[in-house]
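Intended use. Records like the one below are meant for learning the mapping from a protein sequence to its folded structure. Do not use them to infer anything beyond what is encoded.
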Amino acid sequence: MKPIEYLNKYEYIENDVIYLKLNEFNIGDEVVIPYYYYNIHRKSDNVIVGKISIRIGHNYHSYYNGNIGYEIFPVFRGNNYSYIASNLALKVAKEYKMKYLILSCEASNIPSNKTITKMGALLIEKVTPPSDYFGYHKEMKEYNIYKLIL
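Structure written out for the chain above:
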């Protein structure tokens, strides 16, 4: 994969509820695609409520890993922060002219499945990631793989 250009205009992305502040930009390698990694801050008090990454491009591993990964800290769950942050991260993907995103999560992760479908993604398949996927481990569960057209 050819290197992508870093876009400093995406060091900070906001709406009325939250803002994303860049922690790291990684150019990727032959396995990990380039990504922007953010802290998710609640605007009302600047508290960090979680983290999110937006991964640019597609490869074999990103099919199982997905283009967006987020974590909302337990005390802040149930406030739609993952949905709101994911929609903000779409700005980065669109800037890189991505036509679609692959979104994945464990099939048993009901909140993440709801967030992904709320974004408008459609289920492609349920699959247990193969052993040659870089994130594979013996206890891997079945994943839902979705496609979101941008």
